[in-house]
Specification:
globular, about 5% strand, about 75% helix, two-stranded antiparallel ribbon, 4 strands, mainly alpha, ABC transporter involved in vitamin B12 uptake, BtuC
Length: about 400
């Protein structure tokens, strides 16, 4: 409790508020409907979070710069439409069509990043134009039919329909993930000690590892009670871990955080600001395209509504609710996981209760506002302690 109290006053609560919020959401909906925490519903939830979660990871990168990308929804819909038209209507093999669709997202990110970094157009304006323009291109590609159905036995459809039914898969992933976390944390302690900088106590690492082990094994048990480990969830976790390593353990990641902390200070250290900015928008576009393919896989089609509706708001809200600061310089890819879990849990609970979707919007809006308030109070506390 003393550690939590000290971190609260210093504005360093991290993911504690969102984890507590997620527990509250689960307790409330489970008390209202006993099917909410059933293995089937939780398994479906683990697949439902992937599409939006992938998009939200890209949003995290942009938010770390203190910027915004309003085009991710349209880019995701365009990628799904491009894949569907190439594969279904023009007979392009699925792997090639998939790569083209993802590469299209990368190119779009590069174009938008160029106008932002080189031309000086605000990111808000560039991506707002992208929101409209890429959505229009998606409608043009789909043509008059407006809907292209995917092969329900094809590669993209399997992204969200395939499960590893062997119980060893889920438990093995839990054990490997926990062991990997402990080893990475231990190696980090050794490096920091060798460099003569403060380190996290081994007792704290042991407690964190134990908590992670319990959560991971419990999740594996729940998934095995239904259909096993979903392929979609496995891919999502691979992206989360991989890009988290990029942000926290590479020079490129440090440049992103430095740029989010202070553009002028980063420029004076010799950092290529324009290149980093363009690359971050490329990451955002790529992840939006990948997320769009997972969303199309879930419904096995690309339609005129792909990438529209509240998808953009959910992707941004997930990143912010999960703990990424809208002011830049603070956040992790895991923010996307935590935030999208909160949002999709609310959506799942509302659907099970048969409540109007309007209620879901109001609840999500309230949670988003609370997350931003906590972020603002956290920055104020850090400023008071001379950390901002």
């Amino acid at each position: 409790m003393q550690i939590l109290r000290r971190r609260f006053h210093a504005g360093e609560l991290g993911s504690v508020p969102v984890v507590l919020g997620l527990l509250v959401v689960w307790i409330i909906f489970e008390s209202l409907n006993k099917n909410f925490l059933s293995p089937r519903n939780l398994s479906n939830l683990s697949v439902d979070i992937v599409g939006i979660g992938m998009i939200s990871i890209g949003v995290v990168f942009v938010l770390l710069l203190g910027e915004i990308d309003l085009s991710v929804g349209s880019v995701s819909g365009l990628a799904a439409a491009a894949f569907a038209v190439l594969n279904v209507q023009h007979g392009v093999p699925e792997p090639i069509a998939l790569l083209i669709a993802v590469f299209a997202g990368t190119v779009i990110g590069a174009v938008q990043g160029f106008f932002f970094a080189k031309v000086g157009v605000p990111a808000f304006v560039v991506t707002l134009a992208g929101l409209l323009g890429w959505n229009g291109l998606m409608l043009y590609i789909l043509g008059y039919s407006g809907t292209v159905n995917l092969d329900d036995k094809g590669l993209v459809a399997m992204l969200t329909s395939f499960y590893f039914t062997n119980v060893a898969a889920a438990y093995g992933l839990a054990v490997i993930g926990t062991a990997g976390y402990f080893l990475a944390s231990y190696q980090d302690v050794r490096r920091r000690r060798a460099a003569g900088v403060p380190v996290r106590p081994l007792s704290e690492i042991a407690v964190r590892t134990g908590v992670l082990a319990v959560i991971s094994l419990a999740a594996a048990w729940v998934l095995n009670q239904y259909q096993g480990l979903p392929l979609a969830l496995l891919i999502f976790l691979v992206f989360l871990v991989g890009l988290d390593q990029v942000l926290r353990r590479t020079r490129y990641g440090r440049m992103i955080f430095a740029l989010g902390g202070s553009v002028e200070a980063a420029r004076r250290t010799g950092l290529n600001v324009d290149r980093v900015r363009i690359s971050v928008f490329m990451v955002s576009g790529t992840m939006a395209a990948i997320g769009g393919l997972f969303l199309a896989s879930r419904v096995t089609s690309a339609t005129q509504t792909s990438g529209s509706g509240i998808l953009l708001m959910d992707a941004i809200a997930a990143a912010v609710i999960g703990g990424t600061s809208m002011f830049g310089g603070r956040g992790r890819t895991w923010s996307a996981l935590l935030g999208v879990l909160v949002i999709q849990s609310i959506a799942s609970g509302v659907a099970l209760m048969g409540i109007q979707t309007a209620v879901q919007f109001m609840i999500t809006g309230g949670v988003l506002l609370l997350a931003v308030v906590i972020d603002s109070l956290s920055r104020r506390a850090q400023r008071a302690h001379g950390r901002v």
